[in-house]
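Record type: ASSEMBLY
Status: queued
Input:
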Amino acid sequence: MRFLNPSNLHEALTLLSKFPDCKILAGGTDVCVQLRGGGLKPKAILNIWGLNELKNIRDEGRYITIGALSTHTDIIRSPLIHKHIPVLAKACRTIGAVQVQNRGTIGGNVMNASPAGDTLPVLMAYAADVEVTSIAGQRWVPFEGFFTGYRATVVRPGEMVTGFRIAWPPRGERADFIKIGSRKAITISKVMACFRARIEHKKIVGISIAFGSVAPVPLRLKQTEAFLMGRVLTHKTIDEAVNKLASDITPINDIRSTADYRRHCCGVFLRRFLLESLCVS
Amino acid sequence: MKVKRKIDLNGKVTTITASPVARLLDVVRGDLKLTGTKEGCGEGECGACSVLLNNEVIDSCLVLFGQLRDGDLLVTVEGLENKRGLNRLQRSFVKNGAVHCGACIPGMLIAATALLKHNKTPSIMEIKEGIAGNLCRCTGYGRIIKAIEEVV
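Status: finished
Output:
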């Protein structure tokens, strides 16, 4: 196994174009496990951990940009994230434990492309764009559409994810991240969700609902959102929305949980978020 | 093909030559013979192999040796002692009977050291969160938490 160790992004992209079937290694919290027991046997490993240019979290005018190699700890500690997208920090705080948060990166979480990736529903709910770069240049891909199927993304050989951008959330918005697993630390999530809502005079004027681990890819709940948009938030609306939700998701039975339990949790999460929104609105 | 890294290991500048795709854990235990660091699950769930890399706690089973950079600071459990012997945290573990079988203790000490570096006065909840990535199968958490609490 060849170990490619570029010292800057340009060098990394050049190596990637020469070895398009190499495995990209960032923090290693998923890749190292796959290398050891998961049957991953790449001809070459491209270590990008040291590329500091991909480690920034910045205010870039219209967007907050997050470099792909920002670790979960970087995100938790970022004052910018803390102030404007605290639910992303909340999601990162639930990933693994400190050891994994110190090493795991947001780019790695996305490119591991597990439906149970904890940052995925947040990036989905905030309609993030993904920066995909190759030696030929870069393109921005909307998060919705980034995943093409179970563990599959639009990233082509020779390309890598280098960052994310998120438009500033509007003022007066409520947001939350909720997750359930068999214990708080370490375990892989059974279900997780990210919600955003803007309510003016009891009326829902903005709503975004994204779930993880309920389909092969992270999901925006388009039908439930459409139902809620423009409605006055009442207990009756909440009941109806929770009933609608079932048609938006396709959870499965697997090693971590059952489809029924997941469906139930989704309803509970949505109800909890909307009830809390009702209380504060 | 082996690669060379010149790092600060437990306070001493050390040049290490090893395979870049070897796990840091195997380099620490095998090449460096620092066997205080233990292997538990080998997949980042138990924390037995915790070490401090640049003052942050990490699982050494999830880092490849080639990912180290010259100048990195690596501290293993052997590096916690000071000139007088066991440090305050280690003495507190002894005093509180926090050690049963001992397999998790090097990782616990490292995780607690990292926690105390970033938070001088952690609450019990914060202590629990700080060692959430370290499993003890003798269920000695109560005494471990007490041992950490006592040095705060």
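Annotation: Chain B has a mean pLDDT of 97.
Annotation: Chain B touches chain A at residues 3, 20-21, 23, 42-45, 47, 50, 56-59, 61-64, 66-67, 69, 111, 114-115, 129-130, 132-134 (CB under 8 Å).
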